[in-house]
Amino acid sequence: MISESLVDLSRLQFAITALYHFLFVPLTLGMSFILAIMESAYVMTGKQVYKDMVKFWGKLFGINFALGVTTGLTMEFQFGTNWAYYSHYVGDIFGAPLAIEGLMAFFLESTFIGLFFFGWDRLTRVQHLMVTWLVALGSNLSALWILIANGWMQNPVGAEFNYQTMRMEMTSFAELIFNPVAQVKFVHTVSAGYVTGAMFVLAISAYYMLKKRDLPFARRSFAIAASFGFASILSVIILGDESGYEIGDVQKTKLAAIEAEWETQTPPADFTLFGFPSQDDMETHAAIKIPGALGLIATRSVTEEVTGIKDLLVEHEERIRRGMEAYALLEKMRAGDKAPDVIAAFDALKDDLGYGLLLKRYTNDVVDATEEQIKQAAKDTIPKVAPMFWTFRIMVALGFTMFFLIAMSFWYSIHHNVEQQRWLLKALLICLPAPWISCEMGWFVAEFGRQPWAIGEVLPTHLAVSTRSVGDLYLSLAGFIGFYTLLLVAEMYLMIRFARLGPSSLHTGRYHFEQQASAGAAAQQPAQAVKDPA
Question: The pTM is what?
Answer without folding.
Answer: 0.89
